[in-house]
UniProtKB/TrEMBL annotation:
This is non-specific serine/threonine protein kinase. PANTHER family: SERINE/THREONINE-PROTEIN KINASE (PTHR24349). The keyword Transferase applies. GO terms for molecular function: ATP binding; metal ion binding; protein serine/threonine kinase activity.
Length: 326
């Protein structure tokens, strides 16, 4: 937002780019893996879209020099990515789902690729018995190197079943496993990401933003009442069912989600830099971190730009912790 109070919109390239090796489709893209919190350990932080490397946490007492801001809007930052803790390595050869499943290709015909992620690929598929279209996310087992990775896959599927029936949560059709991959078949959404519609519009009107916000917080209310924290809310994790203006909005991206009980506090730093709550960076948070992320989305709906931005992730973290909004 400029100093004169006018809304200022920028193109997608100004504050969100997609690297070739982690590109996502606007239709049922691949979601990131999650990580269970541990109450006593102080986890390492790594950027998930590239080989593990240490991230320096922002200092809580002394603020480092911040990148200069330009009047015309945010500088182009690095791609917002999910962050998670990585455990000790070890190739997985046993069953992930811990039960026998049918052969995916006996029930579905696999079509074009919809998206590519770190752990696997999402394809369009058609159920042979009904001709109905679905999206199939195939997670490569060779990339599940730790017990935590395997548990993340199991928990993501469990949470999707746990939230089944909500009109604004992506529905899961089933999960299959073979020698090379775990296949999660889910509802197919052809309308694209909420993020892309924001870019197309520049920003939303207050009335339309209010409608979308009502949907988003409605999903949060249901998740939290059922003991689920999403932990990666962002416009990229909301899909429209179709291209219509009044299309239903669906929540995806439960790879970082986790079950919780009232009073639980977590210390693992997960999420996406623009949307992560200060409590997450301080390593003590609960479901209120989702509410912060929803607030960031509302800001972007109305302005077309994120409230906290910098040239790199460390700078974004500093802005989230210490930045002032006009």
């Amino acid at each position: 937002i400029s100093k004169n109070g006018l809304f200022q919109s920028v193109s997608a390239a100004m504050w969100r780019t997609r690297a070739p090796d982690d590109s996502r489709s606007t239709t049922n893209g691949d979601s990131a893996r999650g990580e269970t919190a541990e109450s006593e350990k102080d986890p390492d932080l790594v950027v998930q879209s590239k080989p593990p490397e240490q991230i320096t946490m922002p200092k809580s007492e002394q603020k480092e020099e911040e990148p200069a801001k330009k009047e015309e809007g945010p500088e182009k930052p690095k791609k917002p990515v999910q962050m998670k803790r990585v455990g000790s390595a070890g190739l997985r050869t046993d069953s992930v789902l811990q039960k026998k499943t049918g052969n995916l290709k006996e029930f579905f015909s696999i079509g074009k690729k919809l998206g590519q992620g770190q752990f696997g690929t999402t394809f369009k598929c058609v159920e042979k018995a009904t001709g109905k279209e679905y999206a199939c996310k195939s997670i490569a087992k060779r990339k599940l190197l730790t017990d935590d990775d395997v548990e993340d896959v199991r928990r993501e599927i469990q949470i999707m079943h746990h939230l089944a029936g909500h009109p604004n949560v992506i529905s899961i059709k089933g999960a299959y496993e073979d020698a090379v991959a775990v296949h999660v078949v889910m509802e197919y959404c052809a309308g694209g990401e909420l993020f892309d519609r924001i870019i197309q519009r520049g920003h939303y009107t207050e009335r339309k933003a209010a409608e979308l916000t009502r949907t988003i917080v409605g999903v949060l209310e249901t998740c939290h009442s059922l003991g689920v924290m999403h932990r990666d809310l962002k416009p990229e994790n909301f899909l429209f069912v179709n291209q219509k203006e009044d299309s239903l909005l669906k929540t995806i991206g439960f790879g970082l989600s986790i079950f919780f009980k009232p009073g639980d506090r977590f210390n693992d730093v997960v999420g996406s830099p623009y949307y992560v709550a200060p409590e997450v960076l301080k390593k003590r948070y609960g479901p209120e971190a989702d509410v912060w992320s929803a607030g960031v989305i509302v800001y972007i709906l109305l302005s077309g730009v994120p409230p906290f931005w910098a040239e790199n992730e460390q700078g974004i973290f500093e802005e989230v912790l210490h930045g002032d909004l006009d």
